[in-house]
Amino acid sequence: MSAVKFNAVRRYVIYVDIRNFSRWNNLEGNNDYFRVKLLKSFYEIIEKYFPRDKNYRKFLGDGVLIIKDYKEEEFDVVLNNLKGLKDEFDKKKKDLSQEGFNFDLLEFGIGMSVGFINEIIYPEEEIYEYIGYLLNLTSRYCDFTRPCGIIIDYDSTVKKAEKIETSGFRRERLVEISGFAGKEVWCSKEVRLSQIHPPTREDEIHQIEVHVAGVCLKREDELKVLVGKRNNKRRLYPGLWECGGGQVHRKEYFEEAIKRQFMEEFGIVVEPLRVLGDYKIVDRENDVIIPGIKFLCRFVDYLDGQVILNKAEFSEYRWILSNELDAYEFIPGIKDDIREAIRLYQEILG
Question: Residue 110: which of 128, 89, 92, 132 has the closest Cα?
């Protein structure tokens, strides 16, 4: 039996991951047909930009590790291919959605580094594997691409700074991530990393809870508003009707938060049109006041042809007309928000 060989080789290391795959995979109405179509499309996109005959590839469920021989003159091509992967996936999502299931929840996250890794060669089996710190580093970069986008290691690509910046990347520093504090990276425009520095008394960051709420309107023969009845087990306002909303996540924009809330609570895609105003939730039991922002939203699409109700939050839902509002017992102030939303919607969209 031939001895296993270890070679230190210089390579491009790339991780590609489908963001939100697990959550999308569990949506009601999803089935093997859609999963197969998605993963087949994922494979085809990888094959187009990083074909098997020219690259080492290892598919890992909803992700793939790509290792490419390093040639400095090919850097521009590799960089364009990373952007091509994401653009191609966005295009493919639209094509797949036309077949009857919404893929809008899914995004691409991509990490890349350049450097030396250990190539393991099993001569008799002609098998190649790779190990090394750079693989773990690049995998973490891919994980940091939130909500989506591309992160490239700075140290190993600094000689290509001008080209990378010209391609729309910005230089960032990982300052609050355990084990990576101080690392510099290139980020595409979609990636958002916190720029927190060691706080002084003047700029100390306080953790607070902030909410968003929305009124979603849909134009059919008449204008209708989506309302949901809060589960009777809810601590605040059990059994009353509302229009949806909830807590803003860390590093999340208000518009992203309200779109996520409607997707999680009702399984629909919405477009925020305008801020309706602010509000506050008074939680007397815990002596807490929670601030929030209200949005007028336009219905765009269902994830599965109909509302997918979050039963932990709501017991039922309805699309109702404006003249039906008085038949429902809403959380105080919601009816006024709905009437203002209808007025603004007609002003904006007619």
Answer: 89
How many other C-beta atoms can be found within 10 angstroms of the C-beta atom of residue 209? 13
| String of DSSP letters for 275-299 | EEEEEEEEETTTTEEEEEEEEEEEE
Q: Any residues with CB less than 8 A from the CB of 323 and at least 6 apart, and which? A: none
pTM above threshold 0.85: no
Alpha-carbon distance of 322 to 342, in angstroms, equals: 8
What count of other Cβ atoms lies within 10 Å of the Cβ of residue 181? 10
- Locate 226 and state its tokens: 């989506």
Could you please report the per-residue DSSP string of 202-224?
A: TTPPPP---EEEEEEEEESSSEE
CB atoms within 10 A of CB 126: 7
Q: Could you report the per-residue pLDDT of 48-87, keeping only the tens digit for each?
A: 999 999 999 999 888 999 999 999 899 999 999 999 998 9
Q: Which of 310, 296, 293 is nearest to 216 (CA)?
A: 296
Residue closest to 21 by CA, chosen among 7, 35, 9, 5: 35
Paired tokens of 155: 């140290």
Give the residue from 265, 268, 245, 258 showing the smallest Cα distance to 310.
Answer: 265
212 closest CA partner among 251, 250, 261 = 261
How far apart CA 289 and CA 127 sit, in angstroms, is 61
Distance CA 134, CA 140 (A): 10
Residue 287 near residue 258 (C-beta atoms within 8 A)? no
**What span, in angstroms and rounded, lies between the C-alpha atoms of 158 and 145?**
20
Answer left, alpha or beta for residue 29, where phi above 0 means left and psi between -120 and 50 means alpha. left
Angle (CA) 335-337-338 rounded to 5° is 65
